[in-house]
C-alpha cells in the first residue's frame, strides 16, 4: 500500500508554485508614495520612484537616451488598464537606444523610476506639461493575440438570444 501526502501538503505546494509564477516584473514603490502623472505635475518638484504604465504615443531616440511619451492608465498587477480613464500623459527617459519597432506607438508599457522634472510640450495645438520619469526598469507588455474566427478554431459560449 502506497502512502499519499495529506491534502493540506498538496494544497500548500500548489500555492507556492502558483505564487512563484505570479511574481511582479518591476519593483514596487514605497507604500503611501504613489502619485499619478497629473499629481506629479501639481507637486512641481522631484517625486520618489513611481510605477506608472500606459500606452506609448511617441518615441524620440536621442544620442544617449530614448524618450517615450506615454498616455498613463491605472495599473492592475502592474499592467495598464486601458479600459479605464487616463491619469494624464508622462514621459519616460530610458538610457540607451530603444528600437522604435519594438517600442512603437500603441504598445503597452509599465515603467519604474523617480520623476525628476517636468517638461513643457504640446499635444496637437494644446500646451501640456509632462512629468519626466527616469525609467530604471521598463516592462513592455505583449500585444494581445487577435484570433480570426474564420480560422476554424473551436469556441464555446452560453447566452440568451431574442429574435424579433
From TrEMBL:
Matching PANTHER family: OUTER MEMBRANE PROTEIN SLP
Entries under InterPro entries matching the protein: OMP_Slp (IPR004658)
Domain of life according to the entry: Bacteria
Record GO cellular component, one term: outer membrane
Keyword Repeat part of the UniProt annotation: no
Keywords carried by this UniProt record: Lipoprotein
Organism listed in the record: Thioalkalivibrio nitratireducens (strain DSM 14787 / UNIQEM 213 / ALEN2)
Protein's recorded name: Outer membrane lipoprotein Slp
UniProt keyword Transmembrane, yes or no: no
UniProt feature coiled coil, ranges: none
